[in-house]
Amino acid sequence: MNIVRPIKSVDDLANAGLVSDRDRQALEEVAARYAIALTPTVTKLIDRTDAADPIARQFVPDIAELIATPEERADPIGDHAHSPVEGIVHRYPDRVLLKAVHVCPVYCRFCFRREMVGPQGLGTLEPAAMKAAFDYISSHPEIWEVILTGGDPLVLSSRRLDEITRELAAIDHVKLVRFHTRVPVVDPPKIDAALIAALKASGKTTYIALHANHPRELTSEARAACARLVDAGLVMISQSVLLKGVNDDAAVLADLMKAFVETRIKPYYLHHPDLAPGTSHFRLAIEEGQKIVSSLRGRISGLCQPAYILDIPGGYGKAVIGESAIRKSADGCFSVSDYRGGEHSYPPSE
Ligand code: SF4
């Protein structure tokens, strides 16, 4: 029987035939800096006949990760600048991130928190730190939404997740609980009845933001896992990263967004890659990203359109960076472009 095991090291990658002997030494250097993990589901998705396989590119380490550029930084979106207590990031008034765990089932090679996640990362919050995080949320009545991220919170056991959602359910002013995860795609069997029950905070609305970047990730097993979540009353939205060599192509991106909508997941964010160390081989020019995103308009339904987003380096929050369809013209009117590139005039208000 051909048993596929989790991959956690360069040796495991070599044994699985996913890296060449020539690269092993350099990849050990990569592994010393950034964690490696592939689930069996992801390993099986890799097309070994394709040297540029978009699934492998996301999860199999590359020696290009040893190249750090001057603009890259360890904390690209400025979490630390907005962390009042361990595990909490309070960047916007009405919502906080709760980073309970810094472990993931897979380690994405472009991860924006790659210096914080993995075995050498920030680990899991100790009980005293968890209590301090809940105390912080309780004592800030302006916090309407708590976003569990990390790391991937769905690596926690159902029992631990249940403890967290019970604590949040007891805080009146928290109305939304959101989990950011890759688990339904990279480990679909984990989405079972106990886990789904644990994700529901009583009296609150639970959102699941699924991270996936290529339509091949939405396998029938992944779609079935998402259906179990949606059928249980959880709302699903997507988040993807626009990545060179993975999905920087309008047709691929259109198929990804359609796959989300078919799975009852509303496309939400398409992130421009962050300035994480050793990830320049994934970054495309913002102008290229804008062109690809604009071409989705007219190609696929309005339901399938994500917002193209940049997290401003330094912790200043998100900005929508798609091309605008409307401009003020010299005569005081507006010039509006249609999805075919035609220009039309629209009058100013009286
Ligand atoms: S799952 Fe998210 S936090 Fe974990 S490695 Fe991937 S991008 Fe980073």
UniProtKB/TrEMBL annotation:
Which CDD domains does the annotation name? Radical_SAM
Transmembrane annotation, as ranges: none
- Would the keyword Phosphoprotein be found if you checked this record's keyword annotation? no
Which controlled-vocabulary keywords does the entry list?
4Fe-4S, Iron, Iron-sulfur, Isomerase, Metal-binding, Pyridoxal phosphate, S-adenosyl-L-methionine
Q: Could you tell me which InterPro entries the record lists for this protein? A: Aldolase_TIM (IPR013785), Lys_aminomutase-rel (IPR022447), Lys_aminomutase/Glu_NH3_mut (IPR003739), rSAM (IPR007197), rSAM_sf (IPR058240)
Cofactor names? pyridoxal 5'-phosphate; [4Fe-4S] cluster
Radical SAM core domain span: 90-303
Q: Which PROSITE patterns match?
A: RADICAL_SAM (PS51918)
**Keyword Iron (UniProt):** yes
Which Pfam family is one of those matched by this entry? Radical_SAM
Family, per entry: Belongs to the radical SAM superfamily. KamA family.
Q: What is this protein called?
A: Lysine-2,3-aminomutase-like protein
Q: Tell me which species this is from.
A: Rhizobium sullae (Rhizobium hedysari)
